[in-house]
Write a sequence for this structure.
């Protein structure tokens, strides 16, 4: 993992994400079923990333652009890693209960 230019680091119980908000580049590592793989993720314009933190099960991440309502989720679909059918327009914050967003 190259930390040059990294502006933010996020984690769940089994994976990490670094984000460079200036370039829109993300790097993920850890358990791929928990969001540790994000090579096809487009994070241009992302304002926030949130993670679920189940302690013994796979987790997930959500990358949100609060300005446009665009969001991308990845990781375990069971714990929030699938959100393509969710409308995030006007969402200002995302909260996790540990097992979902």
């Amino acid at each position: 993992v190259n930390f040059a230019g990294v502006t933010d680091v996020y984690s769940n119980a089994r994976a990490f994400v670094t984000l460079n908000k200036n370039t829109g580049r993300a790097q993920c590592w850890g358990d791929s079923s928990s969001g540790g793989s994000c090579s096809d993720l487009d994070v241009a314009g992302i304002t926030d990333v949130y993670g679920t933190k189940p302690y013994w099960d796979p987790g997930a991440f959500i990358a949100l652009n609060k300005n446009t309502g665009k969001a991308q989720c990845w990781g375990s679909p069971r714990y929030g890693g699938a959100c393509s059918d969710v409308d995030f327009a006007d969402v200002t914050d995302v909260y996790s209960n540990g097992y979902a967003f």
The radius of gyration is 12 Å. The first strand starts at residue 8 and ends at 11. The mean pLDDT is 89.
